[in-house]
Amino acid sequence: MPDKEANILILCKTYPSPSARYRETSCVAGMNEDGTLIRLFPVPFRLISGDQQFSKWQWISAKIEKSRDDHRPESHKLKVGSIQLGNKVPSEGNWSNRRHYLNQLPVFDSPVDLQKAHEDKGTSLGLVRVHKINDLSLNEHKNKDWTDEERAKLVSMQLSLLDGEQDEIEILEKIPVDFHYHYECFTPSGPVTFKHKIVDWEIGALYRKLVKDHGPNDWKGPFQHKLLEDLPSKDLMFLMGNMHRFPDQWLIISLIYPPKQPQQSLF
Questions:
Q1: DSSP 262
Q2: Which of 86, 215, 216, 244 matches a 20 to 30 Å C-alpha distance to 177?
Q3: pLDDT for position 150
Q4: What is the DSSP string of 97-153?
Q5: What's the distance, CA 235 to chain centroid?
Q6: What would the pLDDT profile of 180-207 be if each residue is shown by its tens digit?
Q7: How far apart are the first and last CA of the chain?
Q8: CB within 8 Å of 117: residues ≥ 6 apart
């Protein structure tokens, strides 16, 4: 399919992972001007030049192409060289500007409803409304560093950069912990508890910052405070996406957390 120009508001970047084909990739998700969600994959984000690196809640314009080997309707390939940065949507004013765009998206009451939309329409991205956060699992990996195979993929990226004009970048740091939210959503049969893995880049960056600030033995307390107390005090929503090879398995790819709106008086 031919390229097309698109304006996209970035809502998500997943933490990068080693790739045999692309060396290092992230999944990026956002919304078009018409209020539809879009997935951009693969995106070698750390390799993108500085004047084209975008942030969450920033508009970009770029050429995209419908993915040929990924038939999920939202999935497109990003022409990295065509990226032009646009305005950032600020959080000031109780997130009024950001809410303007969020209000254009359908919000599912639970992952059950999102899965039903996948079965009916092929939907593979969606916002899920969270009723209550119950717990957070921190599952530490047995291997704290990359395997030899994973490191070889990342080193090959470094070697390719040395042949080009781009400055060398540090080898990707592994996040040796899996983060899972345990949470409740409302369903027609009552509250139901779910458990899903968080792959949001912001959460990976938070982990790295807290390990740096507090050390490898004392990061968990402030990390749990952020995810179990701070974020749940807001109108927390999950942007969820399913896996290409396992479409019945869903991941939390971004945390969306507007401040709670004041209750309207009935009188």
A1: P
A2: 244
A3: 79
A4: HHHHHHTTS-EESSHHHHHHHHHHH---EEEEE--EEEEEEEEE-S-SS--HHHHHH
A5: 17
A6: 999 999 988 899 999 999 999 999 999 9
A7: 56
A8: 108, 123, 126
| pLDDT tens-digit readout, 116-169 | 999 999 999 999 999 999 999 999 998 888 888 878 777 665 444 434 445 556
User: CA 232 to CA 257: how far, in whole Å?
Assistant: 8
Query: Would you say 118 and 71 are in contact if contact means Cβ atoms under 8 Å apart?
Result: no
In three-state secondary structure terms, 19 is: strand
Instruction: State yes or no: pLDDT of 176 exceeds 70.
Output: yes
Q: Which helix (H) or strand (E) holds 213?
A: helix 201-214
Q: Which whole number is the average pLDDT over 247-267?
A: 82
- Read off φ and ψ for residue 109, nearest 5 degrees: -75, -20
- Which amino acid is residue 196, in one-letter code? H
**Pairwise CA distance, residues 26 & 204, whole Å:** 12
Contacts from 93-102 at CB under 8 Å and sequence distance 24+? 94/258, 94/259, 94/261, 95/258, 95/259, 98/57, 98/258, 99/258, 101/9, 101/31, 101/35, 102/127, 102/237, 102/256, 102/258
In this structure, the strands spanning 23-32 and 37-43 are antiparallel
Give the Å distances, CA to CA, from 80 to 23, 40, 63, 157: 15, 10, 8, 16
Cβ–Cβ under 8 Å, residues 110 and 128 = yes
pTM of the model as a whole:
0.90
Structure token digits, residue 184: 């409740």
